[in-house]
Amino acid sequence: MAIPATDSTFDVAQWFVERARFENGYLQAQKLQRMLWLAQGHYAATYHGRKLMPATFVAMVLGPQEPNIYRAYELGRPELADVEPAPEIVDFLDRLWGRFGHHSTDHLNRMVRGHQVYTDVLEKGEGGEISFRSIARYFTAQRDAKPEPVVRGPDGREWKKWS
Hints:
This protein is mostly helical. The protein is built from seven helices and five strands, in the order H-H-E-E-H-H-H-H-E-H-E-E. The protein has a three-stranded antiparallel beta sheet with strand order 2-1-3. A hairpin with a 5-residue loop joins strand 4 and strand 5. Helix 2 crosses helix 4 and helix 2 (29-46) packs across helix 7 (132-145).
C-alpha cells in the first residue's frame, strides 16, 4: 500500500475547519465528516488509488464517519498545531472545497448516503469498516462513468473529439 499524501487525517480536518473560518463560516461536525469522505474518495480517483490521509471510515446511520476525527471534534475544535499540507494537497483541497464546500450539511448527507460503497457496508450493520480499496474503486468508477460533455459549435452542430 502506498504512503498517504498527508501525515495525519487531522491535517486535512484542520485545513477544512480553517477554510470555513476564513470564509466567515462554521464547519459543522457532520459536514466535516462528509468533506473528509469526499476528499479521500476523490483523491483516490484522481491519483490512481493513492490515499490522501491515513483515515478509516465506518458506516454509521448519518453517513460515513472517521471515528478518530469524530471523537476529537465532538466537543468542539481540539487544540492542535496547524500543519499546512504540501502545495499540491492544498490545490486539491481548494478544488474540492470549491465543488462541495458551498453545499449544506443536509445536501452532503443525502448525497453521500446514496454512495453504494457506504450502503453496502451499512446493510451489514452500523459501525462496519469501509475498506479503502472499495472507496477507491467506487469513486474511480463514478468518475469514469461520467459522460463527456457535449460541445456544440455556433451553428448548433455537435463537435466530436479527434486526435
